[in-house]
Design a protein that fits this description.
alpha+beta; 2,3-Dihydroxybiphenyl 1,2-Dioxygenase, domain 1; four-stranded mixed sheet; 10 strands
C-alpha cells in the first residue's frame, strides 16, 4: 500500500534558477538532481522537486510543510540567511513574531521566489 512509502512534493516555478538558489542557499537543501526543467532536493527521506512552469502557482495556501524539533532555532537560521518569515493577522490565524499556535503545533510560513507558501511546524 502507498502508506508504506515516502512521498515527494512537487512545486512549480516560473524562474527555476532563482528558486533553485533560494532552496539551496537560503533554506540549505542539498540538490540531488538538476536539469533544465526541474531541480530535486533532499528533505530527510523525502524529495522536494521544483519544476519549470509557464504559469507558476496561484494558490496562496500552504503547499508543503516541514516537521521540525525546534521551530525557534530553525526560524533563527532561516532569518539569518535572509528568509522572510510571514506574519498573519486573519480570523482564526494570528502569528506573533512569525509563529502561530494552531492547537496541535506551533507553525510559521515563508514564501519562495515562485510564490509557493511553505510551512514549518513543531508538533506539541
Amino acid at each position: 500500500m502507498l502508506s508504506e512509502y515516502a512521498i515527494d512534493i512537487v512545486l512549480l516555478a516560473t524562474d527555476l534558477e532563482s528558486t533553485r538558489d533560494f532552496y539551496r542557499d537560503k533554506i540549505g537543501l542539498e540538490i540531488l538532481n538538476e536539469n533544465s526543467s526541474a531541480v530535486t532536493f533532499k528533505c530527510g527521506s523525502n524529495h522536494l522537486a521544483i519544476t519549470k512552469s509557464t504559469v507558476g502557482t496561484a494558490d496562496e495556501q500552504t503547499q508543503a510543510a516541514w516537521r521540525v524539533k525546534d521551530l525557534d532555532a530553525e526560524l533563527a537560521t532561516l532569518r539569518s540567511r535572509g528568509v522572510k518569515i510571514e506574519d498573519y493577522d486573519l480570523p482564526g490565524l494570528k502569528t506573533i513574531e512569525g509563529i502561530a499556535d494552531i492547537g496541535f503545533a506551533r507553525m510559521a510560513w515563508f514564501i519562495d521566489p515562485a510564490r509557493n507558501c511553505l510551512g514549518i511546524m513543531e508538533l506539541k
